[in-house]
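Hello K.,

You asked for the raw outputs rather than the summary table, so here they are, unedited. I folded two proteins back to back in the same session to keep the settings identical. This is the first:
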Amino acid sequence: MFRKRADWVQCSESLGVVFTTYHRDDAPQDVLIAAKGNYPIVLGRSSSSLEVVLNSAQIEAFNGSPKSLIAALHTARE
C-alpha cells in the first residue's frame, strides 16, 4: 500500500494548487501517454493538454527531498 510521507503532505500543501499523485498502475490513460514511460515525472494539466513540468532526471537530483521538489515546482510556476 502506498502512503504519502508526512513531510511531503506538508510541503505539497504549500503549492496552492491541486496536486494529485498516481502510481503508474493506477494513473489515468492521458497521464500514462504524457509520461511516455518516464517515471518519476511531474505533469501540469491545462484545459487542453498535459505538459512535463519536471522530468525524472530533475526529480532524482533532489535526492528524495520534498523541500527541493517543492522549491522547483514554485520556480516552474513563475
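The second followed immediately with the same parameters:
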Amino acid sequence: MKDVEWVELGEVLEYEQPTKYIVESVNYSDEYKIPVLTAGQTFILGYTDEKDGIFPTEKLPVIIFDDFTTATKFVNFPFKVKSSAMKILHAKKEKASAKFLFYAMQDINFNHETHKRYWISEYSKIKIPLPPLEIQKQLVAEMEEQEKIIEANKKLITIMEQKIREVLSDI
C-alpha cells in the first residue's frame, strides 16, 4: 500500500492505569462471571464475584499491555485485572481501530530483556503504518477470516493426532 502514514503507537493509543480494576480477592471460581485478566500467557486467571471496579462495557474494546514483557491481549468484554503491571490501551477511534492496532502490535519485534516498564519510555514511540480507517476495517476482516481458518486447522490437527493415538492403542 503506497503513501500510508506512519504514526507512533502513542499517537493512536491512550493508556489507562488499571489500578481501579484490580481484583481484591484471589478466591476465583468458574462459577463466577467476571474474568480476571493478565496480559501474559494465561490471559484469564480465573473468575471473580466482585461487583465493583469492573472495566465497563462502554469503554470496550481495549488492548491490555504487559508493561514488563510487552505481551498484548485484545479484550472486548468486561473484566478485572490481577495487577498494575499492565496498561489498558484505548484506540483513538477517530484515527484507528483497536483490533487493527492489536494486529499491528503482534508484528512488532521488541527486545524486552531488561526488567523495566516499557510503554511510556519506548513502546509508545514505535511507529506503525496506519492506513485510513476504512482500509483498517477491511484488513481486520481479512485477518479475522484467516484466524478462523487457523483455528479450524488446529482442531483438525487435534482430531488427527487423536486418531493416530487410537490406531496405536489398538495394536
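Residues 133-169 form the longest helix (37 residues).

Happy to rerun anything if the numbers look odd on your end.

Regards,
P.
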